[in-house]
Design goal:
The protein is about 0% helix and about 50% strand. It has about 120 residues and is an all-beta fold. The strands form two sheets. Strands 2, 4, 5, 6, 9, 10 and 11 form a seven-stranded mixed beta sheet that branches. A four-stranded antiparallel beta sheet has the order 1-3-8-7, with no helix packed on it. β9 (about 90-100) and β10 form a beta hairpin.
Amino acid sequence: VQLVESGGGWVHPGGSLRLSCAASGFPFSTYAMTWHRQAPGKERELVGRITSEGDMRDILDSVKGRFTISRDNAKNMMYLQMNSLKQEDTAVYYCKAAYRLKTYWGQGTQVTVSS
């Protein structure tokens, strides 16, 4: 199983970024996936979940209405569209898969929101 995030970077407050997670090594289309983030000095937290059918679940309250999770099962890709970014969204963002009782994480992508 391999998960590779991309799309992070630096953005002004109010800006947007789209993160991508490329998945391989397991039947992606049949598994739910999650995005997490970890800010400096804080614990990693769940940003949200997407079912195998593409429904968002368990979205973090602080990002509701600003972040959207989507997936393309034909391409084995998951996305996190982040709009109206705030400084408190600064973190390393990770995608995660749970497959055959094991948990797999990507290497993470840094998102920095700053003026």
